[in-house]
C-alpha cells in the first residue's frame, strides 16, 4: 500500500512539474521580444561609471563622498522601476519638444534631465506654488514675459516655459560660472547659491555643504541622464511601441474672447477634455482676452482621437 502511495505521489509530482514547465513555455510573448517576461527580477550593486559628467563638467568620483552620493541616486532611480519606465515613456513624447529649444538658446542638452527631476515631465504643482514641467514660480514667469493669471497661465505652455527656463539658466551660468552651479541655482536660486559659495569659501558645487534637496539635486539629474541614456544597462526592457508619442497638432489663432471652450472644441471635432490636454495653459472654460491678444491654440489633427 505504501509503495502504491509513493508511486502515486511521484506521478502527481511529475504531472505538476510538467504543467509548470508548460506554463512557463506559454508565458506571454511578443514578436519583438526575444526573452519571455517571466519572473526575471534580481537586485544588483551598481558599478558607478567613472566618466560621468554634467554638461561636459566631470563628476569628481575620486572623492569618496561624491562617489557615495552618486551611487545612492543611481540605486534609488534604477530600482524605482515603475517611475523609471514612466520617464522613458514620457521622454519619448516631450524631449523632441524640449531639445531644439535648448539648442537654439545654447543650453547644453543635459538640461532636459533637469526637467525630468523637477516634474517627472508632468504639469506638476509644488507646495511653494511652482507650476508646469519646468516648475516656474509666478514671479519668475511674469518677469520673463509669461502671462500668469487665473484665466491663462503660460507656465503650463511647454514651449514658452522652456524658453523661460533657458533665460534663467543662461543668467545663472553668467553669474555663477559653471553649468553645474547653474543647475543647482535652478533649485536653490542664484542668490542662495552665491551666498553659500561665499560663506564656505569654495567655488564648486561638489565642495558645497548644502541642504538635503539641493545637495541631492545635481546627482539626481546625472543619475537620470545615465539611466535614460542606457536603458538595457540598468535593466529596463521596452519596445518602441511601448513609449508615448506626441499627437500631431496644428495651430488656430484666436484674437478675441472665447465664451465657451466646449462649443469651440466641437467646431474642430474634439471635446473639451482633448482641447485642455493639448492646451493646459488655458485654465478656465473660457478665454477673457480683453486686450485682444493673439493666442495660438493647438488642435490635434484629424483621426487621432477617433
From TrEMBL:
Residues 99-204 form the Transglycosylase SLT domain. Coiled coil: none annotated. SUPFAM superfamilies: Lysozyme-like (SSF53955). Pfam families: SLT. Residues 1-23 form the signal peptide. The keyword Signal applies. Keywords: Signal. It comes from the Bacteria. InterPro entries: Lysozyme-like_dom_sf, Transglycosylase_SLT_dom_1. Transmembrane segments: none annotated. PANTHER family: MEMBRANE-BOUND LYTIC MUREIN TRANSGLYCOSYLASE C (PTHR37423:SF2), SOLUBLE LYTIC MUREIN TRANSGLYCOSYLASE-RELATED (PTHR37423). Belongs to the transglycosylase Slt family. This is Lytic transglycosylase domain-containing protein. It comes from Algibacter aquimarinus.
